[in-house]
Amino acid sequence: MKVLVIGASGRLGAAAASALSQHHEVIEASRSGEVQVDLSDTASIASMFERIGRVDAVIACTGAVPFKPLAGLSPDDFRAGINDKVLGQVNLVQTGTPYVNDGGSFTLTTGVLAREPIVTGVVASLANGALESFVMAAAAELPRGIRINAVSPSVLEEATDYHSYFPGFVRISSEDAGQAYVKSVDGIQTGRVIPLG
Ligand SMILES: NC(=O)c1ccc[n+]([C@@H]2O[C@H](COP(=O)([O-])OP(=O)(O)OC[C@H]3O[C@@H](n4cnc5c(N)ncnc54)[C@H](OP(=O)(O)O)[C@@H]3O)[C@@H](O)[C@H]2O)c1
Asked: In the chain, how many H helices and how many E strands?
């Protein structure tokens, strides 16, 4: 299969690309990679697909959100998190669907904060929950047998800069994270959240 991984230079994206490249042709993309795309820009997404052509699977491992206590969050903070993490990935699905082969798939990335809160994690929880609901609903409407799932990991072992914000949370290896993307791409699930930790 031809698999497009967006955010492949990041921690989760690298884990996904490494696992999927064992059995598939992987195209790696990000704002600064060889294949460039900015998920905040619809024209940039369409332009990327025009350059690389149709694919069998699309994976998004992107999404930045502000981490602040609830009382310190402004409306702009909420807008920034929703624009980047939620609408970036939604935009990818909306713009990318015509470029995905029949029976192909999308795999989005959410995170454990959709089901377990941390201090400063309100915007992340909101964004993750919104994306997971989007996946559930979009699965019922995507055409031509195209599937969609979300991988929802706890904090990665290698994301040591995050560990103090996730006290007592199970830490996920890159290998296990990569296998969750393999499960979504090679499996038959759709509309599902694949939790890790
Ligand atoms: N790390 C964890 O422990 C963890 C755990 C659970 C969930 N998550 C979630 O997983 C996602 C990725 O996290 P990460 O830690 O892997 O992030 P990361 O290491 O910062 O990597 C982010 C990747 O996305 C690319 N990117 C960022 N904005 C983009 C845009 N607008 N368009 C295209 N590419 C873009 C970056 O490359 P460029 O800068 O070159 O564009 C980079 O390749 C986030 O949503 C995060 O909340 C992470």
From this structure: 6, 7
Structure token pair of residue 29: 């993309």
Phi, psi of 96 (to 5 degrees): -85, -20
> pLDDT per residue over 50-100, tens digit each?
999 999 999 999 999 999 999 999 999 999 999 999 999 999 999 999 999
Q: Spell out the alpha helix ranges (H) of 53-173.
A: 75-81, 88-96, 122-139
For residues 82 and 132, what is the distance between their CA atoms, to the nearest angstrom? Answer: 13
Supply the CATH number for residue 78's domain: 3.40.50.720
Total domains, the chain: 1
Q: Give, using CA atoms, the residue closest to atom 18 of ligand 1.
A: 10
Which residues form the pocket of ligand 1, taking CB atoms under 6 Å from any ligand atom?
Answer: 6-13, 30-32, 37-40, 61-63, 85, 88, 109, 111, 153, 155-156, 159, 162
